[in-house]
């Protein structure tokens, strides 16, 4: 297609494009490797760019990225100079223009969406032109053939082959029965820290598990328990994404739980005695040896989490568990101004990550404050804050409740109820475990 089309005398129409968006995509990629991952996840192709120079720059960035080399203005400029393309794209200064055009590299995926959508519209226009030409040169008896060719043209643009993701019941039934009858290959369920919960609520790859509770109820305690049990006790590689707490706060909780040293002792409030030092030393050996990776960032997006997982997968280090603390404070890729829509998009994005990588994702969630006005403060599924999509997307929803949170003198002090409010593959139930908040951990009642 030429840069401009004429559809009436004196009227020139430009094909759908947004050069500013193209610049923001490339500028973001030049600034951040995470942005490159976001763009590749779309995925965006070189021929999606309208400006040929942008396609050339995009190819150079991907060339460097595929070799695990940095892709910035200097390295991309050197590669383009070596290939003789630097002057064709506007020289080195244009690469810096691209960088300066970007409000933030975190939005590269958003602009890539725009570029992709406009590329589809351009290709639809091209396909439409070819369909019109076929309709004029074809005999009436070939009308059915033209319809088939026209459909093929549209499918080539949209990628709609009407078979993507389709399988047969016969294939799936055979796979299911083979796995069921092969006792040498047990189902790969996630090892969880509480015995009764493990028996009632099996968690496997692709599951989105929501752990929800009011502020201070114990969400972070439970999620760190999942991390410790999977990584330290069972040697399962785990990715912990912390948005609410910094690395020092996470370490305080992990060491308090693992060493059974009061949490406030690790915050500098009191001197640590010799006995506690020995406990901390033993815990350090277990924690340092554990396969735990962390993203500690208050502005992390799902795009960055996905990019991190993709890079880990490429290095054959894909975690067997992802834990995110917590959902409602994740940064949306695109804010709409409507929290219900934004939180719903985050929830669906987490579910897609679990399914795409076939790993369980445990995510914390906040509950609505309205439950504090009720006589019975045990939470229910509808108490999930800001979006019903969370409960819909999740395979499993666990609501936390401690009676002594509301009544200090409760006879059930030190107990934490795990209210399984949704369980696609099993029963709904209430499981009571012990809660040792001073150690930042929960455990089976038999161990209290």
TrEMBL record:
EC number assigned by the record: 5.6.2.3
Domain annotation SF4 helicase: ranges: 183-448
GO BP, sorted A to Z: DNA replication, synthesis of primer
GO molecular function annotations of the record: 5'-3' DNA helicase activity; ATP binding; DNA binding; hydrolase activity
Alphabetized SUPFAM superfamilies for the sequence: N-terminal domain of DnaB helicase, P-loop containing nucleoside triphosphate hydrolases
Coiled coil: none
Organism superkingdom: Bacteria
The reaction(s) this protein catalyses: ATP + H2O = ADP + phosphate + H(+)
A GO cellular-component term linked to this record: cytosol
Broad EC category: isomerase
Keyword annotations: ATP-binding, DNA replication, DNA-binding, Helicase, Hydrolase, Isomerase, Nucleotide-binding, Primosome
PANTHER family xrefs: REPLICATIVE DNA HELICASE, REPLICATIVE DNA HELICASE DNAB
Family note: Belongs to the helicase family. DnaB subfamily.
UniProt-recorded name of the protein: Replicative DNA helicase DnaB
Organism: Catenulispora acidiphila (strain DSM 44928 / JCM 14897 / NBRC 102108 / NRRL B-24433 / ID139908)
